């Protein structure tokens, strides 16, 4: 298995632009998590899905952030408009939600820089 | 509600010395506990996990952790540190609710001195 695949690996964009981050979970995993990591705030859970349905989006910082999971093999995290304070590494992780002892598999992350 | 506390945001050891990274958890139900490692510019990788059964769990790269219910702890150890162990380590707890959602600690950065 190729693991959790995130794209792009790096994104540099100007303030005010729309940014879309993509994630392909491991086939058969039915839970998907989006995290943001910064030096100041550490690892933050933004939103998670189970069976393609958003379960908890309380970590999404503002209405500028949105996430979708149209099918079991694809998810997007969109920021519109982007701001410099959104600069961070964004991770996607997947798991077997009905096996709570399974653990997460993380992607390699997308490093977002908003200038 | 569940929570994780990692004592010490930075730990420094000499190469060959014992590594001890501390993790205490809080959970209202029997917990499932995990340690993850993050090397620079990479995602987190599962190092080891405790689910049920044997309380001493062995993971990759010579690491192990012991679940102590009476102390609500799940400390990570390695008898002899190697330079390649330098990384950030995260403890996490999951219970049998919330579709497998884990709560992560703040992380501990391990530095290994030559």
What does this structure look like?
The complex is a heterodimer of chains A (115) and B (114). With 115 residues, chain A is mostly beta strands. Chain A is 0% helix and 54% strand. In chain A, the strands form two sheets. In chain A, strands 2, 4, 5, 6, 9, 10 and 11 form a seven-stranded mixed beta sheet that branches. Chain B has 114 residues and is mostly beta strands. Chains A and B meet through strand 5, strand 9 and strand 10 of A and strand 4 and strand 5 of B.
List the defining traits of the structure above:
heterodimer; A: 115 residues; mainly beta; seven-stranded mixed sheet; four-stranded antiparallel sheet; 11 strands; 0% helix; globular; B: 114 residues; five-stranded antiparallel sheet; 55% strand
In sequence order, what are the helices and strands of chain A, one letter per element? EEEEEEEEEEE
Terminus-to-terminus distance of chain A: 36 Å
β-strand number of chain B: 11
Question: What is the rounded Rg of chain B?
Answer: 14 Å
Helix residue percentage of chain B: under 10%
Helix content of chain A: under 10%
Q: How would you characterize the largest beta sheet of chain A?
A: 7 strands, mixed
The 3D shape of chain B can be described as globular
Q: Could you tell me how far the N terminus lies from the C terminus of chain B, measured between alpha carbons in angstroms?
A: 41 Å
Summed over residues and divided by their number, the pLDDT of chain A gives a mean of 94
Low-confidence stretches of chain A: none
Strand residue content of chain B: over 45%
The most extensive contact between chains is: A-B, 27 and 23 residues
Overall spatial form of chain A: globular
Structural class of chain A: mainly beta
Order of helices and strands of chain B: EEEEEEEEEEE
What radius of gyration of chain A results from the CA coordinates? 13 Å
Oligomeric state of the chains present here: heterodimer
Uncertain regions of chain B: pLDDT < 50 for 5+ in a row?
Answer: none
Mean pLDDT of chain B, rounded to whole units?
Answer: 92
SS field, number of helical segments of chain A = 0
